Amino acid sequence: MSAISKTRVAVVGAGFISDVHLGSLRALGEIVETVGLCDMDGGRARAAQEKWGLKESFTDLDEMVAKVRPDAVHILTPPPTHAELSKRLLSQGIHVFLEKPMALSTAEADGILSTAAEGGGTLGVNHNATSFPAFSALLDDIAAHRLGRIQHVSVVLNLPLRQLIAGDFKHWMFAHPRNIVFESLYHPFSQVRALLGSVVSMESNPLGHRRLTRDLDFYDTWQLSMECERGTAQIFFSCAKDYAANRLVVLGQDAAADIDVFGNNYTRRGRTKYPEFFDTFLWNRRAASELRRSGRSTLLNYVFSTLKLKGRSDPFYLSTAHRVRAFYEALRLGGTVPEGGAEGKAVVRYCELAAAGVPEPRAVEAPPTPAERTGETLVIGGTGFMGRHLIRRLLDDGHDLRVMMRRPDLVPEFLSDPRIRVVAGDITDPESMLAAVCGARFVYHLAAAAPDSWNAAKRIIVEGTRNVAEACAKAGVERLFYTSTIATYYLGGTGPVREDTPIDPGFEKRSFYARAKAESEHLLEKMHAERGLNVLIFRPGVVVGRYGRPPHSAVGYWVNATNAVAWGIGDQPMPLVLVGDCADALARAAKMQDVTLRSFNLVGDVRLTPREYVKELAAATGREIRLHPLPIWRAYLIDLFKWVVKLATRRPNVVFPSYRDLATRVQRAQFDCAKTKEVLGWSPVADRATFIQEGIAYDGDDPKPDGAAASTPPAETAVASDA
Asked: In whole angstroms, how far apart are CA 264 and each of 73, 161, 195, 248?
């Protein structure tokens, strides 16, 4: 087939879903040609262009359409833009393939359909949940009349949201309590519609109300009952339960089917000629065989895909690729597009009825913003794990506070104290950093990050710290307090670590985070020596306590919430410290007139081993939690094997594994914090029972600054970041 006869396709939106669509289009190289990509973020557009080998990228849709003249466009932008963008394209006769949801109301959907009819463009909607392999097997059985008439569908969907756990509410789904319906319930609604037709009536019961910020309400659990054209359905949805699960049970006249969507398993149980007891035996044997076959297929697909011996084969990718292929084959053959605009509108109606059960957000009058005051204490990273405790402690000590956030419009309720002034700022932006610092007496730099590359670590942690320090120097800040980490030390030995112990001389061979923190410390020490910057460095140990995540990464690698692979054999005492004790030390340093030390190690007096920690965590939660020992030499061999595989498959940013970093994670070194205690008058909790209660077994009640409303805390492992 010649290139001229191919359908010319462009993509709008270079977010994470774009890789799935661009991969699906590449697999259709015999019938389509991807001619352009557009994203308002020029850097993101260029990165996607380079990754996928596209000729051009754009930041303006009209410019792209005029220059590359696509026959069809994939719209992968946030849902509030779907109606406007699709109508702009359809009115020109350009075909549109829309990511879900089609629209945010049936009125918007009608507008899209009218424009398509007038302009001549064809509309397809990515209802990829109806093309999951297991769901497709169900549809095949229904078409073959193996279930009889479908009478009822029951869906369980628990989808823990990373953003909800991390307290990151910038995504559009948090902007209004109804948005989560269109973001997450759209998938099960599309499946119910495919099985039972349009919805007739619905009872929607949103539960699990949360106040995310001063202005944002959210419901994390939904129970829905509905009557549809061809049967009834019930859906339980939550994004707050711990175990991710997605099951469909379909009850037909002659058989019942069960789909484990995440496990990609499908089983059907019907009647046979045999007695019930023998029928049950046959069914169980057949189900076991099918599960074994499915498990082997999943394993082999993962291995072959990882080794680049075959393309992506995960259900999410395969389902979208199927929908994309069906769309373009229908265009070329002049047939009806499956899952087109009419089906999209029908699913939007489901969402509309579900969202009708959402109470309107209650109006909350924002507290008056304090006027700018001289001598304020600025906290950077105040919305995170340690920051929350530090803010409470500083308020108790009488500080007038200034808290810096990148998004001051997303202020959590616990900052609604009249003594707190929220200011905009970003540590990666020197100008905004200087504006945030000016007029402050003290600055606490607690912001951190979990970078996935050295470039990211250098930009956010090292250069971010430089921007903070430069702003403090220019603004004449009296004292800068910097939270580093004990990870800057080499902890693979057994000797005691004190405040005067040099940081790891081989830090270049350590993790991105530890290396960046070490470089940041060198930078601050240089500014102190050369420019007189009054900076104190704090190195907290393994910080635990309220607002943290009890499955702490210092214990080991947590495969999931109930299984951790230890760094070593799990018998070494860990350098633990309560987050409240860290906040106490940081606050005490602001009261000291003349501080003789430049750095402080914050490690408490209760040192549980990983085995003891997991035992206490299991007792506190009532769960079976296992710690799996793994000798460090064996862990290193596994890392070497992974490194070889990554090299062979040409993964980007592959770094040779560091034995030194693994040895440090075992944390065999012991800490002597006598000097920190002496200088600051610091007395961390020494009673084991108290430590366990406050650090591991605390209940769900939220501490809060005086006068501030409680909020739902994010669960974060390390010092949280607003950076």
From this structure: 30, 21, 18, 11
Give the separation between CA 425 and CA 380, rounded to whole angstroms. Answer: 9
Distance between CA atoms of residues 121 and 128, nearest Å? 21
Residues 6+ apart with CB under 8 A from 273: none
Residue 463, amino acid: E
- Return the residue matching tokens 């307090």: 481
* Predicted confidence band of residue 720 (pLDDT cuts 50, 70, 90): very low
pLDDT tens-place string over residues 159-180: 998 888 777 888 999 999 999 9
Q: Which residue has the tokens 């309400």?
A: 217
Please report, for residues 10, 178, 216, 422, the alpha-carbon distance to residue 174 in angstroms, rounded to integers and kept in the order given. 29, 9, 7, 21
- C-alpha count within 13 angstroms, C-beta hemisphere, residue 138: 31
Q: In angstroms, rounded to a whole number, what is the distance separating the alpha carbons of residues 523 and 37?
A: 41
Q: How many CB atoms lie within 10 A of CB 44?
A: 17
**Distance separating alpha carbons of residues 219 and 210, to the nearest angstrom:** 6
- Unique residue bearing structure tokens 């492992």: 717
Residue 19: φ, ψ to 5°: -60, -40
DSSP 355-366: HTTSPPPPP-PP
> What is the reported pLDDT for 242?
85
The alpha carbons of the chain give a radius of gyration, in whole angstroms, of 28
163: nearest Cα among 338, 410, 376: 410
Q: At 721, is the pLDDT very low, low, confident or very high (cuts 50, 70, 90)?
A: very low
Tokens found for residue 151: 């009478």
How far is 97 from 102, CA to CA, in rounded Å?
A: 10
Q: Contact at 8 Å (CB) between 535 and 702?
A: no
Cα(328)–Cα(616) distance, integer angstroms:
57
pLDDT of residue 113: 96
